[in-house]
Design brief:
The chain is mainly α. The chain has 18 helices and 6 strands. It has 3 domains: about 90 residues, Fumarase/aspartase (N-terminal domain) (Fumarase C, Chain B, domain 1, Orthogonal Bundle); about 260 residues, Up-down Bundle (Fumarase C, Chain A, domain 2), CATH 1.20.200.10; about 70 residues, Ribonucleotide Reductase Protein R1, domain 1 (Orthogonal Bundle). The longest helix has about 35 residues. About 40% of the residues are buried. Bound molecules: arginine.
Length: about 475
């Protein structure tokens, strides 16, 4: 061992110096830095409890508290001198604490293992990440809501199979995403509730022989409960899987929105254009304006699904309890959260600046074939069975299509020849605004229904923000 190196925490058992390549391969310190706030908070709570149960004197406790505060400060300022044999954030902090606080520093790890420590730190991080994600979702929902409010009367074709199907409003279409995101809020909230359990006191896997006051530590750290089984507590990463799963599904929702932005901004669709500030150009084709943000978000969805898969694969063959494989949880969880959060943030901005081409949408929706179902339902209201009316209108569509006309061009005489149930008011069906007004029950695209949807989601978004509480 080089003279200036601090001995490893297990130096009593393993006398020989660790190979540098092993040291490098096993280190998790770079990724671990994100855990620092939780690690310090956990150590402060643990030290306070050790003091309360008489394991630490008040003087030792004071030395540990000021040492931990100084370490936190050094790491924040970038003056903390990491050493090659600082395997992870826990050993680095302990090594420095002994330097600063002397033998008292060596007492902090009493009744604690890195196994319960690391998962406590990760749960603290995860709770904060859930809160951040939830608020970022609420921001994107608000951005969509604002755009929906502008476009209650903007008619566009709704699609199935990417073929024009029936008229909807742009507001109704945008609110579909708000609903999807609301379910994401629910999933992240569920995941957060299961993060809210404190493992400390579980030790390596079988607790401790010391009279640790786990409830006091949990209260101090703001955990809702203490874990019920010490083996499960150190082996469990379900909470990380749940967050990654919620992120993966949320990213899939965002990816669908992005696909529509890409599609709608083509010359073929022309439903939306991007301001120059939120588009990119081509290095070779001077005319190009590309929706790269939406494409990258769509692409990064794969990365988040990959993180979820990595976590599941990490766990699938692990015997109980802790195994070093679990160190890999952090890469996957941090990346899933970071990508999802940054995607939510950039899309919140993008949605706010999208320029919807209302006239293009309206003329795409003016295709009277979109009202074929309305005419079929008209006949139903006049006593014709739906299958029969579907056939009558289908034949009319075929006839008009082959003769280059539209349903709106069909005369009353022609309608009445197709079915005596038609009355003169059939000609009034081909007004597109009227078509939306006919769809005004709960959940439908009509203006009153959309106004009710807007009220509903406004309340839900407020509740989300309120429930997230202050930081
Ligand atoms: N760095 C480890 C992790 O991230 C901490 C726990 C190590 N425990 C052990 N017994 N080697 O999971």
């Amino acid at each position: 061992m080089p003279d200036d190196a601090t001995p490893k925490v297990w130096a009593g058992r393993l006398g020989d110096e660790t190979s540098p390549i092993v040291e490098e391969y096993t280190a998790g310190i770079d990724v671990d830095l994100r855990l620092l706030p939780g690690d310090i908070a956990g150590s402060l709570a643990h030290a306070a409890m050790l003091n309360a149960i008489g394991v630490l004197t008040s003087a030792e406790h004071d030395a540990i508290v000021s040492g931990l505060e100084r370490i936190s400060d050094e790491i924040k300022r970038g003056t903390f001198a990491f050493q090659p044999n600082d395997e992870d954030i826990h050993t680095a902090v302990e090594r420095r604490l002994v330097e600063l606080a002397g033998p008292a520093g060596g007492k902090l790890h009493t009744g604690r293992s890195r196994n319960d420590q690391v998962v406590t730190d990760l749960r603290l991080y995860a709770k904060g990440a859930c809160r951040d994600l939830t608020l970022a979702i609420a921001d994107l929902q608000s951005a969509l809501l604002l755009r929906a409010e502008e476009h209650i009367a903007t008619v566009m074709p709704g699609y199935t199979h990417l073929q024009r199907a029936q008229p909807v409003s742009l507001a109704h279409h945008l609110l579909a995403y708000v609903e999807m995101l609301q379910r994401d809020v629910g999933r992240i909230g569920d995941a957060r509730a299961r993060c809210d359990v404190m493992p400390l006191g579980s030790g390596a896997l079988a607790g401790s022989t010391l009279p640790l006051d786990r409830e006091a530590v949990a209260r101090d750290l703001g955990f809702a409960a203490v874990s019920a089984n010490s083996i499960d507590a150190v082996a469990d990463r379900d909470f990380a899987v749940e967050i990654a799963a919620a992120c993966a599904l949320l990213m899939v929702h965002l990816s669908r929105l992005c696909e529509e932005i890409v599609l709608w901004s083509t010359s073929e669709f022309g439903f939306v254009s991007l301001p120059d500030t939120h588009a990119t150009g081509s290095s070779i084709m001077p005319q190009k304006k590309n929706p790269d943000v939406a494409e990258l978000a769509r692409g990064r969805t794969g990365r988040v699904a990959g993180s979820l898969t990595a976590l599941l694969m990490m766990l699938k063959g692990l015997p109980l309890a802790y195994n070093r494989d679990l160190q890999e949880d952090k890469h996957a969880l941090f990346d899933a959260v970071d990508v999802t959060r940054s995607t939510l943030e950039v899309l919140t901005e993008l949605v706010a600046v999208l320029r919807f081409n209302v006239d293009t949408m309206r003329s795409a929706a003016a295709d009277s074939a979109l009202l074929a179902t309305d005419v079929a339902e008209y006949l139903v209201q006049h006593g014709i069975p739906f299958r029969e009316s579907h056939r009558i209108i289908g034949e009319m569509v075929r006839r008009t299509t082959t003769s280059g006309r539209t349903l709106a061009d069909v005369t009353l005489t022609e309608w009445q020849a197709a079915s005596p149930a038609f009355e003169p008011d059939v000609l009034g069906l081909f007004d597109i605004a009227g078509a939306l007004n006919r769809r005004d029950r709960p959940g439908e695209p009509g203006p009153s229904s959309v106004a009710a949807q807007l009220d509903r989601v406004r309340t839900l978004i407020d509740e989300t923000r309120r429930a997230a509480g202050p930081e």
